[in-house]
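RETRY 2/3 - previous attempt timed out on the joint model. Re-submitting the same 424-residue input unchanged.
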Amino acid sequence: MGFRLISNCRSEPIVGEDRQDIEALIDLMARLPGLGPRSARRAVLHLIKKRGRLMSPLATQMQLVADTARECITCGNIGTGDLCGICASEKRAIGEICVVEDVSDLWAMERAGGFKGRYHVLGGTLSALDAVGPEDLRIPALIQRVMDEQVHEVILALNATVDGQTTAHYISDELAGRCAVTSLAQGVPIGGELDYLDDGTISAALKARKSV
Amino acid sequence: MGFRLISNCRSEPIVGEDRQDIEALIDLMARLPGLGPRSARRAVLHLIKKRGRLMSPLATQMQLVADTARECITCGNIGTGDLCGICASEKRAIGEICVVEDVSDLWAMERAGGFKGRYHVLGGTLSALDAVGPEDLRIPALIQRVMDEQVHEVILALNATVDGQTTAHYISDELAGRCAVTSLAQGVPIGGELDYLDDGTISAALKARKSV
Ligand SMILES: [Zn+2]
Ligand SMILES: [Zn+2]
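RETRY 2/3 succeeded.
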């Protein structure tokens, strides 16, 4: 057997130096939300087993998105140009802005359908605990947009959490007298987060929106 | 505002064509074990937010591993050459082979430490239900190794499942008279899978191994 004749005098870790690239990959994967060290190991092993049909295409696609994805300068949505697909589309109504905390909430709204206006992604919520003030979010930019774009309605689609509702009240106060401010109403459970709701619930809440 | 002047006559999906690369990435990510469509979306959004410091390095490392990782021709472990780091190491004892179902189990054994011999990765277990026979696994190659390498002990570190134990009995029968066959004993809970055990449990089971 040839393997016994191979000279290997490196002072190596238990598993061997050929594992270091794999370990580095596992460490990076473990930084994804929802994956710990153990599930990252399983994911990497799965990828290696399917390295031709899954791992290589995934790496290529990930690099492509890393190179092209960027935040829309108007609304904060993710797109590939200065303006996202929604802001760049002539088909989306002007004068109606749906305010969300995060891009994942925008995606949830789009999956639900029913909203034909444009968006504004705050990038979080006001938080006394975490010292997040209006200037740390896209709130000044929202107020500017309301003035510049002759906005007649701002729909607050913020999470039904304490911070989400604090943020809704703050924005509502700031926009008082400038445009109508409504919020998603029926169907959003207390403490619920938009991204975890079914599409029908979001649609119903949108239709039943009320003045704040 | 410039965005209202931009002409965009594409007949586009709701979210815009600039989402198609991101959707393709989400679809690929959703094929990882432990990630569904929703967690894949969250993971991709997290990556896009950290596209410089996490997404790009992850894509690069994933491509590197996809290009270099391969199965060891001797034991089935993952490495970067014909032989894995363990088979290529002079420091690992010859004549003692630990048989595992999967590479993840080999990694678990190595994390636990205490075993200084070499491995043999079966690539699964015998299964009447799934029609997996000895020829579908690395069992013939194991028997060949036992003869070629003057192996004096084969340690069966198979999962304590029905299929794992069926496989252990089969291998034990095949190797009867050729070498000692032992198995991990104390500490492996019924129905337990190696990769989910703590390192101490695996170490104890290794030390208390018994003849089959
Ligand atoms: Zn936009
Ligand atoms: Zn090997």
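Chain B touches chain A through 78 residues (CB under 8 Å). Closing ticket.
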